[in-house]
Backbone:
């Protein structure tokens, strides 16, 4: 009788802990390494600056589209919890772009000069 009770207890404990640990965990989005930027750095870039300056301040863009006329660079960002007015660059473009999505968009001509610069932080 003790063996049957022990076996039932062992099986039920295994099932209980197995189902508790198999809950879906929310995965955190992937970020670009060392990609923390602040509003101050975003404000340092102006129309007419070189692409090199934008990439030096903002890091690797999330999305880069090259055309015959130049390039479109986009950084998609998420607020950090440890510093005010600080953001981390997402490694991948969000699947759903909402009005609250934070981004920096830069249009660069063939010569590497920024022709359009817009952001929402």
Residues:
């Amino acid at each position: 009788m003790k063996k049957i009770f022990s076996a039932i207890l062992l099986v039920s404990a295994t099932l209980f802990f197995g189902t508790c640990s198999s809950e879906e965990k929310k995965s955190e989005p992937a970020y670009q390494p060392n990609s923390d930027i602040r509003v101050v750095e975003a404000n340092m870039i102006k129309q007419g600056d070189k692409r090199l300056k934008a990439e030096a301040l903002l890091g690797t863009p999330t999305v880069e589209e090259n055309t015959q006329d130049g390039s479109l660079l986009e950084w998609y960002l998420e607020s950090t919890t440890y510093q005010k007015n600080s953001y981390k660059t997402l490694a991948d473009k969000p699947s759903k772009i909402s009005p609250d999505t934070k981004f920096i968009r830069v249009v660069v001509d063939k010569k590497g000069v920024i022709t359009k610069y817009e952001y929402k932080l």
